[in-house]
Amino acid sequence: MQGKRRKVCVVLVDRANYGRMKPVMHAIAAHPDLELQVLAAGTMVLERFQQPVKIVRQDGFDIHGEIYMELEGSTPATMAKSVGFGVVEFANEFQRLKPDLVLLIGDRYEALAAALRLWRRPI
């Protein structure tokens, strides 16, 4: 590929999510035609979970944005409201970063917010 590198944005929402994505992130970062972007959200940025995003930085990855979307309570209502906040915040970050591709693991409600934001976006 000549010219512009493709921007690949990886969305991290919890520590286990990072463990699965880490090898993929290394491969993206090492590829000459790709530019890695990292968004940390959900429990990755929360102090009560010891901010796992610090581990990502210690591993040598840049964090391009942190999304604070969690409401206290862990009830269906607070989780639904958190998804709503996340949709707004992911929309802002995706507009700012303008990724060509977004990678996420969709096993948590925090990732749903990122996926909802992308749902109507053309590929």
What would you note in describing this structure?
α3 crosses α4. The chain is globular and about 50 Å long. β2 (34-41), α2 and β3 form a beta-alpha-beta unit. The protein is α/β, with parallel strands linked by helices. It has 4 helices and 4 strands; from the N terminus they run βαβαβαβα.
Tally the helices. 4
Report how far apart the termini are.
Answer: 18 Å
**Computed CA radius of gyration, to the nearest angstrom:** 14 Å
- Which of globular, elongated, flat, extended, rod-shaped describes the shape? globular
Strand line-up of the largest beta sheet: 3-2-1-4
Strand content: 15-25%
Count of extended strands:
4
- The ordered string of helix (H) and strand (E) elements is EHEHEHEH
Q: For the residues shown, what is the average pLDDT?
A: 89
Biggest pleated-sheet summary: 4 strands, parallel
Unreliable stretches (pLDDT < 50, length at least 5) are none
* Helix content percent band: 40-55%
Q: How does the helix and strand content classify structurally?
A: alpha/beta
Features:
about 120 residues, alpha/beta, four-stranded parallel sheet
Describe the structure in brief.
By secondary structure, the protein is of the alpha/beta class. It contains four helices and four strands, in the order E-H-E-H-E-H-E-H. Strands 3-2-1-4 form a four-stranded parallel beta sheet, sandwiched between helices.
